[in-house]
Predict the structure.
Amino acid sequence: MKKLNKNEIKRFMQRPTISTSLPLIVLVVVATLINPNFLTWSNVTSIMRSYVFIALIALGMTFIFIEKDIDISVGSLLGLSGAVAGYLMVEGVPVVAAILIAIVISILCGFLTGFFIVHFDIPPMIGSLGMQFMLRGVIYIMTEGTPIYPLPEEFTAITKINLGGIPLQMFIYILFALICGFLLHKTVYGRYIFAVGGNADTAWLCGINVKFVRISAYCLTGFLCGVAGVLMTSRVASAQANAGYGYEMYAIASVVVGGASPAGGVGSIPGTVVGSILIGILQNVMVLVGISVYWQYVAIGGIILLAVILDQNNKKRALATASKGKTNAGGE
Amino acid sequence: MLNIVKAFSGVLAVKGVTLTVAKGEVMALLGENGAGKSTIMKVLSGMYGVGSYEGEIKIDGNLVRSHSPQEAARAGVAMIYQELNPFLDMTVAENVFMHDFPVKNGMVDVKKMNGETRKLIEAIGVDIHPTMRLRSLPAGQQQIVAILRELHIDAKVFIFDEPTSSLTKTETVKLFEIIRRLKSQGKSIIYISHRLDEVFQIADTVSVMRDGYLSGEMELDHGNSEAQMKQIISWMVGRDVKDMYPVNHAEKGEVSLSVQNLTIYDPLSGDKKIIDNISFTIRKGEIVGLAGLVGAGRTEILSTIFGCYKGVSHGTILLDGKALEIHSPREAIRENIALLTEDRRANGIIAQMSVEENITVPIWRRIARHGVMNRKQELDIARKSIQDLLIKCHSGKMRIDNLSGGNQQKAVLAKWLNTEPRLLLLDEPTRGVDIGAKVEIYQIMNRLVEQGMTILWASSELPELMEISDRILVLGNGHICGDYKNGEISQEAVLALASGAGGE
């Protein structure tokens, strides 16, 4: 009985949401001790405001990771979405239309990335690297390297809305997190994502349209990049040429810290949400402590490496126990 | 002057086997799949290093203790693999000198490299140029380049593992010439093959393995090949437990599956036919087995029917009188056809998923309402499958790769049965499965045909294939060279037919 409980506790602790929450709590405590300003409401909302864009992208990246792909063009795509919206509004296109067009174009770009990678069977890292560069180039062409502004009042007002002190974009994030969680964990489509990442050959032989599933994950991510890009442009009240630069790494860090495996087939939306909070706070703490932006890159890169190494170790251990035939009999 | 090779191991699938090959001798190593041939060869070639086996390997009387394939190669063991993996975009000479480029002034001495390669090429008398890119050469010549490489590092023992499986007839003739030349240069050769006719052409001695033991050895006396072949086959097949195989009493109905003029091409070389214009029919309630050697086209026939064959094929396939147009597994599943593939790990299971989820993969769509999974129905179906097929697991929520091989296989079978197939295709359903689970799988097969299903299956284990099937089709040279009812033909005769010894 006692042993069973121990096993249950162990398993509980190994759930990505939980195992990621622990360092999160430690981080919050340490941050508060170092700088009492950390836990003030204004600082918390400022984290939300600045990190919510990356957190949105990370939701899509979770799907892509689980189906065993990767997309490093998301930062550029976020920038493109903002540039398109800004460009159209400056040209006099109505705000709502500009937003919709920007999002539709983002979905199309996501589709293209997925299509190139899946249809021509090229490594996703390289395929999305090509898109990353191309999209960034398009942004520079559109903006000519300078910010696009002034943007209409009613557009910049969107992200100034506060509901009970919480910025609107936070509610948008929560809504999409819920939708993505439902999609991934409750629907057939979500199962397909896991199956394709777990074993694409088996999935295909079981009648699953593997190509469709893979491309659709890129489209979903494109959509979320579009939304994030529009929101970010509204918040900074201009479309910047370098908007979203490096965001892919933050998004990947959030997903990996949240327990998704680069080897595919494993991951969860709750895990990614906790991972996003962790990386968001970490970034904020580094700012509060006065660590330069340059060192932040080093830290984020290091975190990705560490998380992947830990994942690899876990997998080796799981493989070793499986081949020994030692099954944890305690469960369920 | 003898090269003594000895490998002994309790843990591995080989139990106290001693093999000896003399200089200038070709020894054929025979045995069915799982007999332990490849284990022995992995020990020899250093893939299983010192410490992972017991016993010793001697070459020219010197003890060889290699920890890796590289060390084994240095000791003089050359392995020519069945699956070639050369550097396709490099030249012949570069491939030959891959591990020891001649260097002059810090740069690769191309002249010396090409010159020495030319000498090697002349020594075995083939028509290849040192500066050709490997990609431009056909499979047979690529294999010859692999041999050149081993000659270059002065190998003493050459191991050929099913070398002709990817070769055409003329390439095979050429290869045999080269093997004879190696022989005359005093090399020792171990030749692994399923094709008895080839063995009789090239080998001096034969060693047969079964269940990890050496079940027989003989010198080939080419005057008396008929009797010797019989002897070899009986060593390979051995005696069998009779009551392992349950009898199938299913009633046979009208024709269910009809395959007409089916031709299947090799996916790699477009003109080579793996299956050449075959036709056959199967009646409802029948279990029909496909017998044949490795590469005879068994898997290709099954995967063509299921729509997952990667190469080109044409022909007509009718199921219950209706012509099928199947281009993908999805369409096959829609027509109620199911295929259990031969490699469970590669494309049978989804390792990260639970037993329950694995059992329901093809029917997820069916048990969802408006795209949302119906967990309760899924659990009910999974639970029923686990009970019906006696899948041993503590919980359906366990990851499937925590189950034993036999239980994994039953789970994969359950997955396909949940699609309610009319036609069930099984490719090596008992591979990597313990005896107990094997018998259970036979029983399940019998139960299914009694319910009116049609089963077409393939197995490399002749005894089970012959005992369980109502009929067997023997494949050889791309044709059906025999169609026999259960009990009409002996294992020996099937093997002889399949290996081309029974006449064209």
